[in-house]
Amino acid sequence: MGRHKKTAAASGYVPKKVPSLEGVYDIIGDADILWEAVLKRLGRVSRTYGFNRIETPLIEDLHLYESFYKGSKNKITQLIPVENAAGRPAVLRPHILPSALRCYYQHKMFDKAPLTKWYYSGWTHKLKEESLSSAYEYGFEIFGGFNHLSEAQVIGGVWELLQSLGLKDAVLEINNIGLDACQKSYQEVLREFLATKKYELCDDCNEQLSIRPLNVFRCLNMDCQALITEAPTILDFLDQDSHKHFTSVLEALDEIGIPYQLNPLYAGPDGFCKTNFVVKYKFKEQTKILGEGGHHDDLMHSLCGKAYSSFGFSGDASVIHQLLEAAKVEVSKEQHNDVFLVPLGELASKKSLRLFRDLTVEKISVYDHFGQSGVKNQLKQAQVYNAPIALIMGQKEAMDELVILRDVKSGMQEVISYDKIVEEVKKRLGR
After folding, report:
1. Which of 11, 217, 286, 339 is the most buried (most CB within 10 A)?
2. Residue 25: inside a domain, yes or no?
3. How confident is the model over 377-416, as pLDDT tens digits?
4. Residue 390, domain extent
């Protein structure tokens, strides 16, 4: 008989190669230009529209998500529990929106600014069919004293992001489901309409009849979808102010040229109210949801006890990445540097390290490579990284305090003394 092998647990041995868990993914911008494009353009659009980034914890109190999913018991079972030292029941976040709303209320941002504009992105995790399911969620949210123009601006930012990524066939559907009073009146009528068809509805939809009949509109079952086409629409139950507000939002979208389709049978998730919208994309006979948006006043009230005004959009960047990959959408590398450093040799590399510091102090973006790659390969890299200027320094130049300035596009170059190189670069860049 051979010797028994000790198990990892018994021996304390940990394998050197430990892969990631099944169902989670790494994002490597250098290796995946599509992911790089999605994340960089998200940041760029956010800055353009004045959204400030927030980061919320990966784990949150269980009760936050029990309140968020109070109308969907099956989603509560998808939560991944986490043991924590504080002794409070906690879970991995399955969505970031509740965290963002909690963050706004907990830090009393309503006392610090009349209008708050946030964007976020990060991994979310849940159990789906007993397997780990991860998504890279992103979103925009505004809080405080905003109006219909601000809503249109949020929608415009979402639209610009998707269009810039090449998703030209995206479709924006919009509706208004009113305030709580409007929804209650409408849902009574909708419940009565659907009750006559309960034997034709799926089990989930029948369960929603006693919870939130509006959720029937969110069912993906084709038979249920066919039944609701004849349902009364909530637009007939809106009060005068809601009608006026919705008209103003649509007029603002027309003003900025955002195409949309009215869908009176669309309703966002639980807790959404007033303006609701969804962005869809059809690829090879399959319709993907790129994200959903709306007012979250009711959701804020449910989670935090007070209905602070909030409006926003959230989507899964993983879905966008999959679509771009499947559709073979070409995006250009967005890496841009003002200067590409080309040091040749140990002494030149040391001098270039000082040059790197001197340039960055002047807010000049620099790509550096202090390895052993030759000048020809480094100049090729300068083109890849879109640098208009390459600064070359060899052994002789380093000793004589000189730098070779090369125009990457034309190939023209000249020798400039070190003490004048920063000002010359600024001049060439128009600074």
Report:
1. 339
2. no
3. 666 666 666 788 989 998 999 999 999 999 988 889 999 9
4. 339-429
